Hints:
Oligomer: single chain
CATH superfamily of the largest domain: HUPs
Number of helices: 10
Helix content: 25-40%
Amino acid sequence: MPPKNVPSAETPSPAGKLKNLQIVRTVPDLRQQVQEWKTAGLTVGLVPTMGALHHGHISIVKQLQAECDRVVVSIFVNPMQFGPSEDLDKYPRQEAQDAAKLDEAGVELLYAPSVEDMYPPGFLTTVSIDKLTDYMCGAMRPGHFDGVTTVVTKLLLQCQPDVVIFGEKDYQQLTVLKRLVRDLDIPVRVVAGRLVRDEDGLATSSRNVYLTPEERKIALEIPKTLAKIAHDLEQGRTSIAAAVKQGRNHLIAAGCKEVQYLEVRDDETLQEVHDLSRPCRVLVAAIVGNTRLIDNMPIRPKS
């Protein structure tokens, strides 16, 4: 059961300040609006988020708006996916600002449930996926993916959208959630949200605000290292093992406190690979200062 002492979300802006965005907090209110849209023959998309929205989120919203008639964005800081030593307490909660951004982007509905509504007293159910969660982020953050798959299952059942979108930046999470939908026969189409980068190349993340200017310079070596690994492997200049070893050494030398993983895996299954006979992806999690950053890039074998 999730912890009880969780900071509450900021009180949203008064409804009168929002042009079109409606805010609902309960499952009945969410389902009523979604059902009205579906009865009218409209398709509905869902963007699950934990708030602290940035231009990467808005890009994903825009991508989904091109896929369906109405968009629901959920904001829920999910305590089940945070470990005991992770940043749940300091995770930014700024619902008023988030609502304003969504309203400006033309989103029709914000679903912002409380922890008590999402996990009522006596909640005992956990949704787990084996194997896909045993390595990379799953190995570094025990229990994390159980929290993700549980809350996403609930959000999909609560909203019952036609389409759902998950960002490519969390590539292992995207792969896990595709498997969740497939294995449980959940009637929703999964779309991969394009990975968005800041102007300097750093993968856009809510956690980037934690970086000092000097730490950000170090963090910029992460996408540069991934790009070099992808290029060298595509050009056949080195082996996977050698490229990964060189990349890890470079990140440590550049100032990363820790490289939790740097791996090349199959683009679709995330299984380990030893050659480029299929499309692959290089994925990384590194600690810069006190901030954990993840990123990934595709590797395309020569035709």
